[in-house]
Amino acid sequence: xxxxxxxxxxxxxxxxxxxxxxxxxxxxxxxxxxxxxxxxxxxxxxxxxxxxxxxxxxxxxxxxxxxxxxxxxxxxxxxxxxxxxxxxxxxxxxxxxxxxxxxxxxxxxxxxxxx
Amino acid sequence: xxxxxxxxxxxxxxxxxxxxxxxxxxxxxxxxxxxxxxxxxxxxxxxxxxxxxxxxxxxxxxxxxxxxxxxxxxxxxxxxxxxxxxxxxxxxxxxxxxxxxxxxxxxxxxxxx
Lengths: 115, 113
Description:
The complex is a heterodimer of chains A (115) and B (113).
Chain A: E1 5-7, E2 10-13, E3 19-24, E4 31-37, E5 44-50, E6 53-57, E7 65-68, E8 75-79, E9 88-95, E10 105-106, E11 110-114
Parallel strand pairs in A: 2-11
Antiparallel strand pairs in A: 1-3, 3-8, 4-5, 4-9, 5-6, 7-8, 9-10, 9-11
Chain B: E1 4-5, E2 10-14, E3 19-25, E4 32-38, E5 45-51, E6 56-59, E7 62-67, E8 72-77, E9 86-93, E10 102-103, E11 107-112
Parallel strand pairs in B: 2-11
Antiparallel strand pairs in B: 1-3, 3-8, 4-5, 4-9, 6-7, 7-8, 9-10, 9-11
């Protein structure tokens, strides 16, 4: 399977704990995105990388959230001191920026439940 | 303030008939639009896109229409099949290569045999 993969698929944690999610993009894609989706809503943009550089961050990305893409391949999203409001589906997407297309392809998501 | 609106939370259609899903936007800077389909426990799957220089784009059973003056787009599925039952999201961006996609809340399509 050469699509976007995310690990873990599900994570249950207690309030106050730190969690880290991993995303592996489609191999030739130079852009990688993180979104968050809550029940009844569409995905909400969090941040994106072009290669190693983090180019944009949403105001939704509080200082408890940090994302990295150290070698321009996989990415991690860490949430420190989790809160119940962080419970959501965290989606990763990747794209190949080109002249004619920059379509984002999504992974299956990581569902986070904060107790 | 929602910049992309899908005002119908759900839609039910008979197999073989046409499904029409609607989307409105408020930001006049949006010039690239996409539709995604999402099954439960999966990530969104890209369906079709349209640039603001066009008013129609077709791919098999899926056609997207864009009315810039009305800030409205629609997705037509003809003929509808039971496997099309899913949540459909409309998304928009400022430019084809902008990172930040703005999504609507989605419309749940049910296609009945």
